[in-house]
Amino acid sequence: MVLFKKNTNLSRAEALQQTEQNIYRISKYFSPSSYIESNISNGFIGKLDEETANKLKNDNQVAIVEKDQTIKIASLNIFDFEQTENVFKVQNNAPWGLSRVLGKPYLKSHEYLYNETIGQDVEVYVIDTGVHVTHKDFGGRARWGANFVNTINKDENGHGTHVAGIIGGKTYGINKNVDIVAVKVLDRMGSGMISSIMKGIDYVIKEHEEKKIFCMTLQLLNFYITANQLIKRD
C-alpha cells in the first residue's frame, strides 16, 4: 500500500490528477512481478516485491509504503446469521443499553428519549462485515454501498448488522431515522485485509457529502499508518 505526499493547496480534481501523474512516474520502478491492483485517494494498492518497495520508499514524492495485513472485528463471535434474527425484537420498554445512554435517572424506568426529527437525511456508512439491509428493524432505511470482499452482498457474520442496529435500528438504535449504507470489507469469519479497509474508506471519501458519517468497529493489533493517513488526508 502506497501513499504519496499531499499538496494541501490543490483542489480535489488537481489532487486526483497529481496522483495519476505520480503513479505514471513511479511505474518505472516496478519489476516484472510488481503491479497495481487499484487506485485509492492519493495512492494505490498493489503487489510489490522487496526491490520495488525499497525504490518507492526512497522516492521524494512517496510518503508511506506499508505491507498489507489481516485484521479482525473488535469482538469476534462466529455464528450463523439466522441466529441473529431474534436479536431485533420490538419491545415496549427501552433495552438495557439504551436506558444507560441517558444516564442514572432512566436506569430503573428503562426509558429512552430521542428526537424524532434528528437524523433525517443523514447517512451512516458501516464499514464492516456487511449489513442485512432488508431486516425489518431498519424499515427500508438500509442499502448496499460497496463490497470489497470476494463474496456475496450479504452479512455472513452478523457483526455489521449488529453495529448497524445499534446505530439506527428501530428497536435498539440510538437514532431511529438515519439511513444505513453497508460497506463490506470483512468476510464471514470477521477477518479482512488492511487494503480492503482502505478501499472501503476511500469509497466513503469519494461518496462524501454533508450529513454523512462512517463507522468502523475493528480490532487493530498494530497502528496502521496508511489507513490512518488516508482518513486524515481527506
UniProtKB/TrEMBL annotation:
Give the family per the record. Belongs to the peptidase S8 family.
Tell me which domain of life the UniProt entry assigns to the organism this sequence originates from. Answer: Eukaryota
Q: Can you name the source organism?
A: Vairimorpha apis BRL 01
* Residue ranges constituting the Peptidase S8/S53 domain according to the UniProt record: 119-217
InterPro entries this protein is in? Peptidase_S8/S53_dom, Peptidase_S8/S53_dom_sf, Peptidase_S8_Asp-AS, Peptidase_S8_His-AS, Peptidase_S8_subtilisin-like, Peptidase_S8_subtilisin-rel, S8pro/Inhibitor_I9, S8pro/Inhibitor_I9_sf
Keywords, alphabetical: Hydrolase, Protease, Serine protease
The GO cellular component terms are: extracellular space
Task: Specify the Inhibitor I9 domain's residue ranges.
Answer: 40-73
Matching PANTHER family: CEREVISIN-RELATED, PEPTIDASE S8
Show the GO MF annotations: serine-type endopeptidase activity
Pfam families, A to Z: Inhibitor_I9, Peptidase_S8
The record, for Gene3D superfamilies, names:
Peptidase S8 propeptide/proteinase inhibitor I9, Peptidase S8/S53 domain
Record protein name field: Subtilisin-like serine protease
